[in-house]
Amino acid sequence: MVMAESDVQSKEEGKTMVFIPVGRTLQRPTILPTTCSFRRLYVHVCLFAVVVIVILVLRAISNVRVVFVQYHSSSDTDGELVVLPEKFAVSRGAYCLDGSSPGYYIRYGKSPNLNKWIIHLPAGAWCSSVEDCYSRSFTELGSSVEAPMFRAFNGILSPSESENPKFHMWNMVDFLYCDGGSFLGNRNNVISHKSKKLYLAGFQVFNALIDYLVEHTELKGADQVILIGSSAGGVGATVNADYLRKRLTGVNSLHLVVDGAMFVDNPEQTRQQVMRNIFKNTFYLHNIQGAESIQECTQKLPGDDQWQCLQPTFFYKHLFTPVFFLNSLHDAWYSKNAMGVNCPFSTCSQSDINILDQHRSSLLSRASSILQSLQDGIYLTSCPVHTMTMNKRFSSQLSEGGISPQNALMKWYFHQVPNYTFVENIDFRKATAVCKLDS
Question: Which of 23, 91, 202, 314 makes an SS bond possible with 183, Cβ 3.0 to 4.6 Å?
Fold first, then answer.
């Protein structure tokens, strides 16, 4: 029997084709984990970090090069800052006001003067109240952190042979003044003020700096040492000079130079006690009576009068070290800050001039014992300046017909005149006429 073509087609359309894999089961498709994406991100981050590190290293190398060039261009003439290691300073209780380690600026000498040293205690007034000390602790007058890496050395510290012919090849050290108490403070307890700790330990700072210089430089083998103090540093140098002589037992010659530090209490001229209050408040705030170097003076005085030992002219009678004083009879700092005379020198009123001339007479009276000494010297100019050894005034003739502080000091130090004295005793109005006030 023959089927029609339409019948065959209808039968085949009724059948369904089904494919069944042998030995396998069907599973739901899964999404691959994102490990690959995270790995790529990690690689990118690492590459970025490497690039940043390379840039920082290159910048650091560039900065090192700048510092290296600066060191070579500056260190031959300027003083370079040396901050004491923290462990060394802490073991001696030596701190700046803010608790940082003290330091000094140094420029080494040259042959044949490698065993000759000048140590300078700089100016900077005092902090005579807790608030004053707190304010100073944020500056280089209270913190080595704020101190510049280099300090210009001028005057008697100058490396210039023409400006400083006798001392330019000596070892030069300029202490960082960061204690606020003329390197004499001896307060054991820390003061807390406005959530900040304050350390008043100037005498420990002085000792630690000397210790470090003896251990790490050739100061221990020094033959000649000149201790110089300017203004507030002059107070500390006066009181610490004999103590330093005991510390440096091998030194053959130690001399003291006191520059612009003949501070005296003269309340009768202004009916005020400004200088007395500054010294008295500083003395007791910093517990200066506890400093070993001042006790020969203080032990002979009642407690309320011991502050007077901060006056170099008062302490002088206890001083053994040969000393040369340089001072103005019309000291510019003293006139303004202690006597309230702040007029331009050429336009001072007659009442101001009377105060200045009275102070000149009083200062000459206080200096009488120095003037009579057979070993010590003094340079008293009438020009209204303050300090002279660390600036261009040192080698300048301050007044017409006068002598420079440098020449005066050299006459005394090199024994051309054992007790050399220069006293320019003229009144203030005449002084302004003959003095070179731009010096």
Answer: 202
pLDDT in tens, 244-263: 999 999 999 999 999 999 99
Rounded Cα distance, 202 and 182, in Å = 7
From CA 435, how far away is CA 206, in angstroms rounded? 37
Closest by CA to 102, choosing from 33, 219, 183, 39, is 183
- Give tens-digit pLDDT for 205-248: 999 999 999 999 999 999 999 999 999 999 999 999 999 999 99
Spatial distance between the Cα atoms of 16 and 10, rounded to a whole number of angstroms: 13
Helical spans, DSSP H, in 105-161: 130-136
- Cβ pair 326, 405 in contact under 8 A: yes
Q: Tokens standing for 202? A: 């100037």
Helix boundaries (H) for 125-201? 130-136
Task: Decide: 339 and 278 in contact? Cβ < 8 Å.
Answer: no
Give residue 305's identity as a one-letter amino acid code: D
